[in-house]
């Protein structure tokens, strides 16, 4: 039920993310990248050694990849555009301005937090928020019809939806990007909270951290069984039981949409066993959607 992503989309975005992270002076582990992007270590090695072979990439004493020269800004823009054109991806990041790409690749602060793959977003808002993050400036915006004063830390793409990770009243929160209106970057700078930075680095989930988590039990069968078993589709999933036909697993969520947007990709092979109210909510959403298609 979500927009289809082609193999080329996943490939080019993965390589672009790796490229941007290298230019942000990160040292990248092949094993960690493979786990993060759900591909083999051989694929990651091919990304770096073949698709980015024109760049001066080396290994440190721990075998992690890093970029020896981070001053090749023109080369980086050219590489981004060539990759996008090669794989037919025109929405990210080729529509970003040259000035913004230069800033993105030269800033010591990365505005992005990788979450498997990127999806199309509002480019103007993306640039405004990214600059605010890199310049560590407080922003004002309307979210859910309420005025907010935010300290922005990261932009996260989660299950195809962009979110701004920011502190609001000194509490770390996520704000759905398309719901942010009237964004204004102030001239007031903030000093990033070290505890927030540590939390960002260590946590796998950043959604509704102030909300109580609830456990959800799923039944997974058919072709989806292999995906959930071997690729760990849900970051905190735990397998309760398994046989050759199906899996029973549990996961914890804070927002229903965190889970629903994932399992919709595997309909009809994933069923919500508990809690019953979430199963009913899911059923009603699907019925409403199917009714819309008939009109």
Describe the structure.
- 39% of the residues lie in helices and 26% in strands.
- A hairpin with a 2-residue loop joins strand 6 and strand 7.
- The protein has three domains: 96 residues, Arc Repressor Mutant, subunit A, CATH 1.10.10.10; 101 residues, SH3 type barrels, CATH 2.30.30; 81 residues, Alpha-Beta Plaits.
- Strands 3, 4, 5, 6, 7 and 8 form a six-stranded mixed sheet that branches. Strands 10-11-9-12 form a four-stranded antiparallel sheet. A two-stranded antiparallel ribbon has the order 1-2.
- The radius of gyration is 20 Å and the shape is globular.
- The N terminus is likely disordered.
- The protein starts with 6 loop residues before the first helix and ends with a helix.
- The protein is built from ten helices and twelve strands.
- The longest helix has 19 residues.
The name of the CATH architecture of the largest domain is Roll
Q: What order do the helices and strands follow?
A: HHHEEHHEHEEEEEHEHEEHEH
Give the terminus-to-terminus CA distance: 17 Å
CATH fold group of the largest domain: SH3 type barrels
Radius of gyration (Å): 20 Å
Q: Level of helix content?
A: 25-40%
Percent range for β-strand residues: 25-35%
Whole-number tally of structural domains = 3
CATH class of the largest domain: Mainly Beta
What is the overall pLDDT average? Answer: 75
Q: In DSSP terms, counting alpha (H) and pi (I) runs of 4 or more, how many helices? A: 10
Strands, count: 12
Structural class: alpha+beta
Oligomer: single chain
Main sheet properties:
6 strands, mixed
